[in-house]
């Protein structure tokens, strides 16, 4: 498999998967009725932010795959992707805000673990995950606030 094809497949998996899950579990009437904290961003922010983050996640995954498919870095990358894809169905579809806090905190820990692991081997991949860690950290506080307020 050529490296370009592999990159395209990573982009398709992450961007396509993330956007598809977001579309299927889009916030509806239930979410609109929730009490939200004052720092809750407007709804239009989430699509562009996640699109950029998914591209960064895919590139970091592709780089990790190239450097060692069986290494911890790649295992953490797959784990974070699974947790990422699990959060929206947990929060929006199942309407389980408390369980979603658990999922997002596990996601944050995995993202930070990926950064720490990648830092030694592929610093660019670690840097690609820094905005992701910041957003997931913010989203964790937002999710917890919504769970507490409701």
From TrEMBL:
It is a multi-pass membrane protein. GO terms for biological process: tetrapyrrole metabolic process. CDD domains: TSPO_MBR. This is TspO/MBR family protein. Belongs to the TspO/BZRP family. The keyword Transferase does not apply. It is found in: Membrane. Keywords: Membrane, Transmembrane, Transmembrane helix. The keyword Transmembrane helix applies. The chain crosses the membrane at residues 44-64, 76-94, 100-119, 126-149. InterPro entries: TspO/MBR-related_sf (IPR038330), TspO_MBR (IPR004307). One of its GO terms (cellular component) is membrane.
